[in-house]
Amino acid sequence: MRTYLDCYPCFLRQALSAARQVGANDEQQHAILGEALALLQTLPSGATPPEIGYAVHRIVRERMEGGDPYRALKDQSTRAALALYPRLKALVAASPDPLETAVRLSIAGNIIDFALSDELADLWATVERVLAAPFAVDDLGVLRAALDAADRVLFLADNAGETVFDRVLIETLDLPVIYVVKGGPTLNDATREDALAAGLETCATVIDNGSDAPGTILRLCSEDFRRVYAAAPLIIAKGQGNYETLSEAGPRVFCLLQVKCPVIARDIGAPVGSVVMRQSYSPL
Amino acid sequence: MRTYLDCYPCFLRQALSAARQVGANDEQQHAILGEALALLQTLPSGATPPEIGYAVHRIVRERMEGGDPYRALKDQSTRAALALYPRLKALVAASPDPLETAVRLSIAGNIIDFALSDELADLWATVERVLAAPFAVDDLGVLRAALDAADRVLFLADNAGETVFDRVLIETLDLPVIYVVKGGPTLNDATREDALAAGLETCATVIDNGSDAPGTILRLCSEDFRRVYAAAPLIIAKGQGNYETLSEAGPRVFCLLQVKCPVIARDIGAPVGSVVMRQSYSPL
Q1: CA of A41: which chain B residue's CA is closest?
Q2: Residue in A6, A9, A30 nearest the CB of B5
Q3: H/E segment holding residue A192
Q4: Residue A96: what pLDDT?
Q5: What's the confidence (pLDDT) of residue A264?
Q6: pLDDT band per the 50, 70, 90 thresholds, residue B126
Q7: What is the percent of chain A with per-residue pLDDT over 90, rounded to a whole number?
Q8: Edge-to-edge strand order for the sheet containing A135-138?
Q9: What are the tens digits of pLDDT across the range B24-46?
Q10: pLDDT tens digits, one per residue of A61-97
Q11: I need a labelling partner for A167 at 20 to 30 A (CA). Which of A51, A62, B58, B164 fits?
Q12: Dihedrals φ, ψ of B183, to 5°?
């Protein structure tokens, strides 16, 4: 997905939010905002939102040497999600269509997103909404067939906490799964530590993509990961960041997400709040 | 009120919104956003949000030669408000405290703000909410006393359509009123044409401030207006723009507004949605 002009204000907001997250004082916030303004004036054309978001967050990291600024919030998300784990498992066990229920739960988990709201949403209310909502884009039938044909799944994680919901889906799949987290901290995206805290090593092989950018920007990923990616017969990609970078990555890729911003809503053609299960197109 | 860092994303959003309002194509929107980014990098310290907003909107005007881009929306606002006029008058007539009711209605009218939402809000729902809400800042008693002592009122208008609600308040005051509109188009702010369409000339002397900036930036106003302003015993100032420019303009000034953005909410110390009736402080 290309970057829209409407993303520019959002990048500034993210720069400020991240700066505050790592405890920047007024002067530091001002300097970071100034650098972000300069960056936005010289964007390479065709860059996706995560590529620019990555550059914006790098400004904050370089100025603040912050380590993992979202660590505490990520831990809190994982704990909140783990508390729901038995109820999520019970929902799948009681469902006439366990795959659909597990897919919906994995999408429900995508609401854990501090990049946008800075607050932990009411998780269970989201679970109930997403279980009941019609898919705005519904390629579940195609995914079902692709899962039947595939001998393994590459699963691209999004946020910490959401990982627990992904685990429920993976435990439903009955296929070997490689679960891919970020190679370093970026926003509240899951790193290896977050995947392990959510118990993913009990149901999947956890690897990282060698990159600390949001989404999946292949040219920034490690060669190891790119090999795994190239060989994967079926890829489940979670969240807006992966949608933004992989929406045209071809029919092996299935994007599972909630639409959280008006720009992505316009790109997908479905309103904010929509539940989306979408097979990627091939690049034009 | 000073400009907060949180205002920066909002200025970009306003630049885009105004550019689209005048029909800018993608390339023009991109150029306008680029100029806005450059402007934000060189802000004079101490500038109020309306001063920066003014500079941002000037970029749009200079690129697009747009005349009055909000003309159609302003006309629509005035018509929508005029349709409510008889009901507003009836509310005041039936009230045990006509002044308070009329003040509340004038504040309710402040919801007509395309700068923020681009959509006409449900006016009557807002009227009922503002009639029932406690004042988050309540200097009504001071205003009442000041009105008893004053021989005339200077009334600084905000948006078109809101003008109709102001008219109801002015008709309740029983004092000579000078109603001040903008000297040229800026956002959906009322100009002379909008005041006349709302019938203000039947209850007040309508003048303009000689400036096409939002709020009341005295150094940009005409000398004539500055003389009238200096001599006024009591000033009613409507909306966020006037609050941002006059919140420290001294105890002659009473700001009537709804809090619509988190930055002003923090400055006033009351949440978004609050109904505010606040006497200005003296400059420090």
Answers
A1: B34
A2: A30
A3: helix A192-197
A4: 97
A5: 92
A6: confident
A7: 72
A8: A135-138, A275-279, A253-258, A235-238, A153-156, A177-181, A205-208
A9: 999 999 999 999 999 999 887 77
A10: 888 876 777 888 899 899 989 999 999 999 999 999 9
A11: A51
A12: -75, -15
Chain A residues closer than 8 Å to B26 by CB: 5
B→A contacts (Cβ < 8 Å), by residue, are 5-6, 8-10, 12-13, 16, 26, 29-30, 33-34, 37-38, 40-41
Q: Say whether B5 and A13 touch across the interface (CB within 8 A).
A: no
Could B9 and A12 be called an inter-chain contact, meaning their C-beta atoms sit closer than 8 Å? yes
A110-119, B85-94, B142-151 — which is least confidently predicted?
A110-119
Chain A residues touching residue B40 (CB < 8 angstroms): 37
Question: Any idea where the domains of chain B sit in the sequence?
Answer: 7-64, 72-279
Q: Which residues of B178-189 are buried (b: 16+ CB within 10 A; e: fewer)?
A: bbbbbbbbbbbb
Q: How far is B33 from chain A (nearest CA, A)?
A: 8
ipTM of the complex: 0.75
**Which CATH number does B72-279 carry?**
3.40.50.10880
Measure A30 CA to nearest chain B CA, in Å: 7
Residue B224 reports pLDDT greater than 70:
yes
